[in-house]
Amino acid sequence: MNIEKYSLGVGDRFGFEGAAQLRALQKAQAFGIDIVPVWNKSNREHNIIGTVPEDTRKAADTAVKTCNWKSSYYVDADHIGLATVDRFIPSCNFFTIDVADYIGNQTTSESVSAFVKDMSRFVGTLEIPGIHQPVAVTTGTVMDIAGKYLYAVDEAGKVYRHIAERKGADNFIAEVSFDEANNPQTPAELFFILAAIAREGIPIQTIAPKFTGSFLKGIDYVGNVGRFAQEFEDDLAVVAHAVNVFHLPSNLKLSVHSGSDKFSLYPVMYAAMRKFNSGIHLKTAGTTWLEELIGLAASGGDGLKAAKEIYVEAMKRYDELCKPYLPVIDIKKEMLPTPQHVASWSAEEYVAALQHNQSSSAYNLHLRQLLHVSFKVAAEMNGTFVSLLAECRTAIESNVTYNLFSRHIEPLFLGRSNGGSHD
Question: Is the dihedral of CA 404, 407, 411, 414 positive or negative?
């Protein structure tokens, strides 16, 4: 099983938007761009919403049938480890093996010594095509990288083999994720991480490094775009070189997590992908749930009432809802509107505050982040939220398709400016 050049992680919290998401990918196909969907949902999300991996598989299969989708599609066991992977094995064919928590854990001195010996041929000046400055490598450099990352890669190997033994090595895509590390990986670190992954026998097809700057939930990139552009190009160059040197899968590509709404980055990513003729996996989980909220609010009546109630409850439970996501949100509480103010909003005012249109003075990125992590509130509405999703289908599906195609696919894969508000 080999994943295609371009793929989108299309998370769907409640499992109702698969067809609307596929319509965005079908619009891309009309422009000659083939992008395959990867429906991703983590163990934590399943537990919060009360679903199981089989539900995600069923929703994906239903969407594919509804849209007569003829290309490949995948269901991702998102951010799993040995403790959580088993429940995903029957239903998933893409596994995001998250080892960020193991970075820096001490491995054996024998493992470090063996790795340093194997990598001794790279000590000196490491020339990587596409990186203008040669990478200086000393024995100490390799030892430091081994001490920092070997344990994590060893853990990834354990998880990969566990899945392969139960599912068959040819029946799934393996990704290794380092994106929740504290610091971005340097080109040298990424190169030797890939070396370690190859030594571990993991045929990864996507790798998710940590990038510079902040990839916060549901809002644009926070950081130096020029610095990111250089880092992204360097990472593409390292991946291409490592594929040749370490005989990794030829379709290995970068995976960008929390990749939705990073509008300032898509133009530089598009340019770099064209320069290197590289693929990409972009995860857009979470943005679909916000489009559902926008669709409910825009529909007025009970939909708008529910959207307001979710915000009021989110404010009451602010600390509880934000705690699991503190590394990937930056909410200034004083910038949030009061529940009383939101209760007085019209449909247009609610949509303007939540919809990611940075040219609008009404857009509130703090409200958007809070609602992004508040899907638990909707899940606890005793079926009311799901019923409203069915009632407000037209507005919701229109928003979901527009958001995915016009704001994400067009700038990243077609090199065209993303849209603003959806009229």
Answer: positive
d(CA 5, CA 27): 17
Selection from 96, 97, 113 nearest residue 150 by Cα? 113
Tell which of 258, 285, 312 closes a domain. Answer: 285
Query: Per residue in 285-296, pLDDT tens?
Result: 889 999 999 999
What's the pLDDT at 421?
53
Burial class (CB in 10 A: 0-12, 13-18, 19+), 182: exposed
Contact 402, 272 (CB under 8 A): no
Degrees to nearest 5, angle at CA 373 with 372 and 376: 115
Residue ranges in the chain modelled with pLDDT below 70:
418-423
Domain with residue 167: its CATH number is: 3.20.20.70
Count of domains forming the chain:
2
Using DSSP's 3-state secondary structure scheme, residue 328 falls into helix
377 contacts 48 by C-beta, under 8 angstroms = no
Predicted TM-score of the model (pTM): 0.95
Half-sphere exposure of 300 (CA within 13 A, CB side): 2
